Amino acid sequence: MTTTPDDRTLLLRAVALAAEARAAGDPPFGSLLAAPDGTVLAEERNTTLTGRDITAHPELKLARWAARELDPAAAARTTMYTSCEPCTMCGAVIRQAGLRRVVFALSGAQLLDIRPAGGRPPVPQDGPALFDEVRAVVEGYYR
Q1: How many angstroms separate the CA atoms of 16 and 10, rounded?
Q2: Alpha carbons 47 and 61: distance in angstroms, whole number
Q3: What would the DSSP string read from start to end of 46-115?
Q4: % of residues, the chain, pLDDT over 90
């Protein structure tokens, strides 16, 4: 799907929110949620540092807001505009909230190109284990 001039306007607002987050001492990420007519329903900034919450990404906060405040049909008509492509955590929550579309200004790959090297190493994971035991708990729930 191609972006429109209206998408560009809303993306620029997301970038401005990212600048506000950076000025406040947080990572430079901002997002907003818009109705089909372009009306901004809610907007958020990253507050992972100032809020001391590693999950306080603006995309996650908006998806949670949408799931709580909008009925599923209304959520399915919204578009999220965000300064950077949502991370895996945020993407999962956006899907659960049932949002229609996400438009981002900077891809995750582009972010890695302009961000200094480093970060945290991957956390080793072991599994699956105890399939039969957990299957008995989960099976039938998603009908």
Answers
A1: 10
A2: 10
A3: --TTTTT-TT--HHHHHHHHHHHHS-HHHHTT-EEEEEE---HHHHHHHHHHT-SEEEEEE-HHHHHHHS
A4: 87
